[in-house]
């Protein structure tokens, strides 16, 4: 048996797991292995799990690394251990009437998924209750996507505009990098009791208002021809059927990257940087940030319903 195929039995919080292919490169350009992927998720779990808890998870799996074919997985794998929590939720798209999602509430389940080469974790803006029933959204999200030659620096400028506008509505936003070229802003809205359509409509109105204020910088429509040099405010991520990359999830780029919660002081600094410097963090840097400053997204949990 080769070193890359050797299985390693481990116990995680009383659960028995068998880890495999730990030496396999997940990011061939840097040599970052599956063992390092699992290690990152195990270490980041204390701050990541609270943001996953109670939310159906969609994963993006890369069995042979980020440069090889991948697939999106909504249904929990058939070989999942019986202790992996699942929930069956109806779907409106063609095909099956339901999906059976995993709900990652504990470290063992997170490690089990990481061992499947699940590099990315995506979740909706709503949770399920104890009976598995979808609840009203507790979060609102604005996904900022730069159209070249705009970059995440311009995303930061738009983020500050959104922070001000949402502040007038009594909603405090928190920023994070997407882990790719853009960023997202999250706000807690559980106490408002809005349903998914109401949240989506409100986010749409906000995006259109910011576009009207800064038409040379912002676009709220998906049409690609309109997005060159501008920041798309993707308000549609609030549709209950959609998901957004979870806080602290890694991303499948050539080099290891993490969707990283930010401080507003960082956003303000980058917005005024004139495009100098790189805005982004890898797994080691994120672990160091958490060790020093804790979970910058913890405020979303304080008011979650």
How many helices in DSSP terms?
Answer: 7
Average pLDDT over all residues:
94
The low-confidence parts are: none
- Helix and strand composition category: alpha+beta
Please indicate the percent range of residues in DSSP E strands (runs of 2 or more). 15-25%
| CATH architecture heading of the largest domain | 2-Layer Sandwich
CATH topology of the largest domain: Alpha-Beta Plaits
Rg, alpha carbons = 19 Å
For the secondary structure, the number of strands is: 17
Strand/helix succession: EEEEHEEEEHEEHEEHEEEEEHHH
Number of domains: 2
Quickly name the level 1 CATH class of the largest domain.
Alpha Beta
How can the largest sheet be summarized? Answer: 6 strands, antiparallel
Describe the structure.
Helix 1 packs antiparallel against helix 2. The protein has 7 helices and 17 strands. The longest helix has 19 residues, at 34-52. The chain is globular and about 55 Å long. Strands 5, 6, 7, 8, 9 and 15 form a 6-stranded antiparallel beta sheet that branches. The mean pLDDT is 94. By secondary structure, the chain is of the alpha+beta class. It folds into 2 domains: 7-123, Alpha-Beta Complex (DNA primase, PRIM domain); 139-302, 2-Layer Sandwich (Alpha-Beta Plaits), CATH 3.30.70.3300.
Please give a handful of descriptors for the protein shown:
Alpha-Beta Plaits, 2 domains, five-stranded mixed β-sheet, DNA primase, PRIM domain, single chain, 305 residues
Summary of the model, kept short:
Helix content is 28%, strand content 24%. With 305 residues, it is α+β, with helices and mostly antiparallel strands.
């Amino acid at each position: 048996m080769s070193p890359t195929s050797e299985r390693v039995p481990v116990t995680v919080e009383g659960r028995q797991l068998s880890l495999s292919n730990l030496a396999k490169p997940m990011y061939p350009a840097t040599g970052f292995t599956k063992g390092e992927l699992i290690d990152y998720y195990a270490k980041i779990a204390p701050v990541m799990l609270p943001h996953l808890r109670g939310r159906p998870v969609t994963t993006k799996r890369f069995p042979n690394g980020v440069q090889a074919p991948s697939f999106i997985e909504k249904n929990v794998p058939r070989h999942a251990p019986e202790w992996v929590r699942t929930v069956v939720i109806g779907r409106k798209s063609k095909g099956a009437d339901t999906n059976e999602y995993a709900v990652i509430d504990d470290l063992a389940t997170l490690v089990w998924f990481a061992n499947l080469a699940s590099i990315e974790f995506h979740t909706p803006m709503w949770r399920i209750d104890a009976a598995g029933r979808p609840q009203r959204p507790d979060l609102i999200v604005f996904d900022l996507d730069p159209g070249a030659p705009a970059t995440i620096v311009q995303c930061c400028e738009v983020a500050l505009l959104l922070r001000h506008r949402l502040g007038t509505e009594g909603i405090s936003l928190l920023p994070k990098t997407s882990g790719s070229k853009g960023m997202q802003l999250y706000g807690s809205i559980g106490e408002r009791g809005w349903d998914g359509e109401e949240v989506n409509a409100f986010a749409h109105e906000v995006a259109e208002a910011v576009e009207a204020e800064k038409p040379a910088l912002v676009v709220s429509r998906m049409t690609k021809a309109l997005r060159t040099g501008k920041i798309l405010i993707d308000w549609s991520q609030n549709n209950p059927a959609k998901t957004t990359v979870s806080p602290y999830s890694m991303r499948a780029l050539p080099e290891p990257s993490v969707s990283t919660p930010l401080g507003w002081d960082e956003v303000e600094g980058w917005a005024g940087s004139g495009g100098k410097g790189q805005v982004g963090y890898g797994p080691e840097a994120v672990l160091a940030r958490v060790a020093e400053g804790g979970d910058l997204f913890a405020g979303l949990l304080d008011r979650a319903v």
